[in-house]
Design goal:
Layout: H1 3-9, H2 24-34, E1 46-51, H3 54-61, H4 68-72, E2 75-82, H5 92-99, H6 104-118, H7 122-146, E3 150-154, H8 159-165, E4 172-181, H9 198-201
Antiparallel strand pairs: 1-2, 2-4, 3-4
Length: 205
């Protein structure tokens, strides 16, 4: 599917066909394509919890305002950002060291810059986690559509409740949920509403 078609045909689907599953192989293909999304210093400060079982859906639905999408979608992804993703413990730093031929000075400089830019306050750490995980989230929805899978992002959720229920680390933050599945063709989507265009949102200085 070409890029223009992807963007035009991707919709936030409210109604999923609960009888059409997504197998794990296809889900893996979507995720492995989506992680080509950019991230600061390629640190990839994110992870995903994929809710596929009825037990998992029942744990989540009450923390997502009881949205039926959670129960109907074959998969709902919890998108998680890591506020400490710039720390030395991130294995990406080792990969970077190898990719620059063992230049420790270069990697040390990158670590210092990342710590200054993203770790100097709690607000910066949160912004770092959410902005990078947000890039992954959009990439996931585009990759899904390329595979014929519909999606719906959700932020009307109990962020703290999900954090606790699914045992996230203190350094992690819930960014959003993304329902994945196939549109229930017995239902009807509202027409796409107009978007604000270049003239409405862009200031040239």
């Amino acid at each position: 599917m070409d890029t223009k078609t992807l963007f035009k045909e991707r919709r936030s689907v409210n109604f999923f066909d609960k009888n059409k599953p997504i197998d794990e192989t296809l889900l893996k293909e979507v995720v492995d394509m989506a992680v080509l999304a950019p991230s600061a210093f390629n640190l990839q400060p994110w992870r995903i919890i994929a809710i596929r079982t009825d037990a998992g859906k029942n744990r989540l639905v009450g923390l997502a305002n009881k949205q039926e999408k959670i129960l109907d979608a074959p998969v709902t992804l919890i998108i998680i950002g890591n506020k400490d993703g710039f720390a030395d413990s991130n294995p990406v730093w080792d990969e970077m060291l190898a990719s620059v031929g063992g230049n420790t000075e270069m990697v040390a400089g990158a670590k210092q810059a990342a710590t200054f830019l993203y770790g100097s306050s709690e607000d910066r750490k949160l912004k770092f986690a959410e902005s990078n995980a947000g890039l992954l989230a959009m990439s996931l929805m585009i990759a899904a559509k390329d595979k014929g899978i519909d999606s719906h992002p959700m932020s009307g959720i109990d962020f703290d409740g999900i954090h606790k229920e699914f045992g996230l680390k203190e350094s992690e933050t819930v960014v959003m949920l993304i329902g994945l599945g196939y549109f229930d063709s017995s239902k009807q989507l509202f027409p796409r509403r107009p978007r604000r265009l270049f003239e409405d949102i862009t200031t040239i200085i």
